[in-house]
Amino acid sequence: MTTEQPVRTRQTDAANDRIDRATWKLCWVVVLGAFATGLDSSIVNIGLDSITTELHSTLSTTQWIVSGYLLALAVSLPAAGWLGRRYGSGPVWLTALGFFTAASLACAVASTPEGLITARIAQGLAGGVLIPTGQTILGAAVGPRRLGRVMGVLGIAASAAPAIGPLVGGLILHSLPWPWLFAINVPIGIVGIMLGRKMLPCSRPSDPGPMHWTGLASISAGLALVVLATSRWGDAGRLDPATVAIAACAAAALATFVVATRRTAHPLLNLSLYRLPAFRAGSIAAACSGALVFGSGVVHALYFQLGHGQNPLHAGMSLIGVAAATAITAPAAGRWIDRHGPAPAALVGGCLAVATTLPLAITPLDLPTPVVQLVLVAYGASVSLVAIPAGVTAYAAVPSTNLADAITQVNILQRIGGSLGGAVCAVLIASHTADLPTGFRLAFGALVVGAVGSLLAALLIASATRPGAIVEP
């Protein structure tokens, strides 16, 4: 009994540890920036045909409006932690949001495909810094015992914004020209900057040492090549020699980063964090959740368009239930985590993810829409319970001085997992266009594998953390 008393005391403290109004306001400011970048990752997809026609271009060129953005996100992401330590997370966040807003305006006024692609790359570079820097600001503001609640609110933007992107894009194109797909970010960004200047804390820059340029170049190149290889694989539906060569170059670049990091006194990322069992468990869970979430985004959209014959707008409307369930569950999941620790939520989320992906993998393609919607709403609830405990576990495991580093690394793993998950699901469907029922069963089967991976990662979280509490490092 005596050994359990500190756990109960810490659990009670966490449950009663209220977050003040100023911190909640700060949280919603950061959510605003995350929402803009999340929305931008998917809103443009539905407008590619219109953009191609009006700019007198080809789809092979304009698809770089999407690919260039994703590649740029991967390139700038590794530098986020170092920039935050060097200049302060608040100024870096404001600068990134300002850059993102200006790039959005440049996209809206672009008159050539080349100009639009360039502006989109600028957007991606800013977005890759904006997301982890915002998480760092919130983590530093609340501490490890209150991470669940703020990450739960942030999860509304991170999970729901990409899901509603196609719907928002369809509604815009229904009555407005394509530049409004980008112009919508401008007022959001301006409001975020104005609020951020008033509410962001005055974080003190530290001395992270000189930029490790070899490490930055190798990991940025490696991540960009991972995204490029998986995108090509998903689009082609097969592994051609060029895609294999790109994947090999990605592996070589990432291996170079690991070797270079071990040999420098000022590494870009502190890889020794993986020696911490809780950080390692949370990181694995983050990679699994990224694969599951991004893979399901591909499968669900195509399921309604190809399997049920819906146009993109109606398909986007059919996905509202998933997005709403994720957004509603996220804050509740955060509160649960702060009260009882991340393990229970992660275990329930993993079980629910398996239970909601398996039925669509073993049933006919022409299930009644209400049945499908019911399953997908339950799946949307599982997304928050899978994704949020992963980040909280990893971030709470490290000292506060390593928080920015930890957040950057977890975001990298989520992006790698997401790229692989989306590519695998796209390939399984694309390679069975003549037999769509089989293709979708295989794709949903891949989601089941991802859900099982999340459940196994939840078991790792349970073994790496003490039951009932998030223990401060």
Features:
single chain, 473 residues, Growth Hormone, Chain: A, disordered C terminus, DHA2 family efflux MFS transporter permease subunit, MFS_dom
Strand content: under 5%
By CATH, the superfamily of the largest domain comes out as MFS general substrate transporter like domains
The H-and-E topology, N to C, reads as: HHHHHHHHHHHHHHHHHHHH
Count structural domains.
3
Spans of at least 5 consecutive residues with low confidence: 1-15, 468-473
What general outline do the C-alpha atoms trace?
Answer: globular
CATH architecture of the largest domain: Up-down Bundle
The CATH topology label of the largest domain is Growth Hormone, Chain: A
Structural class call reads mainly alpha
Count, helices? 20
State the share of residues found in helices, binned by percent.
over 70%
As a whole number of angstroms, the C-alpha radius of gyration is: 21 Å
* DSSP E strands, number: 0
**Average pLDDT over all residues:** 85
User: Biggest β-sheet: count, sense, barrel?
Assistant: none
Measured between the Cα atoms of the first and last residue, the distance is 23 Å
Give the CATH level 1 class of the largest domain: Mainly Alpha
Keywords: Cell membrane, Membrane, Transmembrane, Transmembrane helix, Transport
Membrane topology: Multi-pass membrane protein
Domain Major facilitator superfamily (MFS) profile: 26-466
Subcellular location: Cell membrane
